Amino acid sequence: MITTLKDNYDSTSLFLTLSAIFAFIWYAWIKPKNPKTSALPPGPMGLPLVGNLLSLDPEVPAYFASLAQTYGPIFKLKLGNRLGIVVTSPPLAREVLKENDVTFANRNPPDLVQNTEYGGPDIVWSPYGPEWRMLRKVCVLKMLSNTTLDSLYSLRRREVRKTASELYGRVGSPVEVGEQIFLTILNVITNMLWGGTLEGEERANLGVEFREVVTGTTELLGKPNISDFFPGLARFDLQGLKRQIDGLGWRLDHIFEKVISQRVKIEREGVNESNKDFLQFLLRLKDEEDSQTPLTMRHVKGILTDMVVGGSDTSSNAIEFAMAEIINQPEIMNKAQQELDSTVGKDNIVEESHIHKLPYLQAVMKETLRLHPTLPLLVPHCPSETCVIGGYTIPKGSQVFINVWAIHRDPSVWENPLTFDPGRFLNDNKYRDFSGNDFTYFPFGSGRRMCAGVAMAERMVVYSLATLLHSFNWELPYGEKLDLSEKFGIVLKMKTPLVAIPTPRLSDPTLYE
């Protein structure tokens, strides 16, 4: 009898214990905790602790687009200890980036940015406030304004012409297009930043090192990091990502230290006023003591990092995608070259002043950024307070992803959205621009945190494309097939680098000198 009672007691205890555990899980993960949680957007059910992490697909924008088909244009994902909100429609993007611009102007930097010496306080990741406004003002007014860019045209021209000359020397041989353009844009940016501080072989070695650092940095920032989903584990660096980016950050800092020390030395010896550059301006601004938000050396390095990492990789990727799409459809190359021949002629070279007379080539760039936006999810936004979007509660501190990649491929907005067709920007969509005011097309984002380098990117992409297509015909190596597959990350790249063979098409060989 006593044994039977004991067995019944043990069975009852086990039942109550299991019931309590089940109830806890149900209340914690399934049943809403309070009225606010009940107003969260819909989304796939997650597992305890990990949430939806195990179901994430490496091709994140495409995966998010497929989830939107089930859960609607705004949905939630539980990413470990973090809540992610994904927006996949123009009206909701407008609510986030325009109607609630100030609330969503904040950023929640990934662990690799917050807890390493990589870069410094910068435009991309700094929280919205006086420091960020000071940094953006410095860059936009002093380096990226149309006035400044106009004054530096000769610099861009020299580097683009140098690339044309190098390609002429490799006529008939396969060329890795993305790498060639990356080095061209990098030379333009570093010339703008610190002019002729480094020359000759030292400058060439610098280009190679920057290529390795920039590529490595963007790849690491695009990898899923356990430390972002479970901040309490960050100190253990379980994937070794912090160690890797610390190594890249050290190399980048070493380059900046070398350039800055040489610039300071030149300043002490008496600067040549005819050779001013952006670094010189930053170092002088740093020494001003009357500023309410002083510029520090960490700010200087953060700005330099933004310009080098952000400016070179994104523009070169866009040009590589454009060239791949053009080579894939020879009729597009013919149209672009006919426009160039009628505007520039085969006995002349392309100048930036020709760009506004090349509507078809501008349409090629717009279509490239529609189909292959360089930041497919933009940089995630982080609301500074709890707010309501699309009738749903978006909690303070959540990560908000705007799926530009999916919006640009929405069949309810775009006819034949998966077809590369520049002509669409010559007809009904010709007034779509990069201002961020049209939420069916905003490859550079919108609102306060939209890309500060739009004017620079627009000039470099169109001018580089014009030069490549005007100076050369392009074809794939014999027997090769073009792979337009995308490699997703924080920056969109071609999964297989474009390799193509140039052949000259200008009438006079001296035009390549």
Automatic annotation (TrEMBL):
The keyword Transmembrane helix applies. PROSITE patterns: CYTOCHROME_P450. The keyword Ribonucleoprotein does not apply. It comes from Morus notabilis. Its cofactor is heme. The chain crosses the membrane at residues 12-30. Heme binds at residue 451. PANTHER family: CYTOCHROME P450, FAMILY 706, SUBFAMILY A, POLYPEPTIDE 4, OS08G0547900 PROTEIN. This is Flavonoid 3'-monooxygenase. Belongs to the cytochrome P450 family. Keywords: Heme, Iron, Membrane, Metal-binding, Monooxygenase, Oxidoreductase, Transmembrane, Transmembrane helix. InterPro entries: Cyt_P450, Cyt_P450_CS, Cyt_P450_E_grp-I, Cyt_P450_sf. Pfam families: p450 (PF00067). GO terms for molecular function: heme binding; iron ion binding; monooxygenase activity; oxidoreductase activity, acting on paired donors, with incorporation or reduction of molecular oxygen.
